[in-house]
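Fold it.
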Amino acid sequence: MKTFHCIIVCLLLSVVAISAQETKVKWYTLEEAVKLNEKTPKKFMIDLYTDWCGWCKKMDAETFASAELARYINANYYPVKFDAESAEDVNFAGKVFTGSPNSKAVGGRRPSHQLTVALFQNVRSEERGYPAIAYLTEKLELIGTVPGYKTAQQIEPLLHYIAEGKYQSVKLDDYTKTFVSQLAKQ
């Protein structure tokens, strides 16, 4: 009888552990996401962050902590964390992007990584900042980059708009007018 109870407890703990994993965003490195995309194509959501960015940390702790949002992101995107000031060179989409030099820039911050600069190509320089989310197609083509902190309620319509491919035919403002949130009311 004790063995039976142990088996039941182990099964319940396994179910709880699996459920907990599904309620967190499964972040990938760029290399991991590209490799997964070769087998199962999905859009990319690249979180451009820095280690000094307080709003980046807030977005991690609050926005991406939403279980419903995490499930949607995991199902529809390859979510990637990318240090926007990384010193590492990156081979991405057939190009080598150079990391920022190790020397410190003004204010103790490093210059942006070349990949970060490339992902900000559709954003005016005065609007660039962190956090920022870059969205790419399954073919690794840039859809757009959205700078600034977003709550779960603010980012949810954009995630659906891009995942559903609506960005190709409908203006975001028109889409959001009819969007129905899947997030629990908070």
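Confidence is low (pLDDT under 50) at residues 4-21, 103-108.
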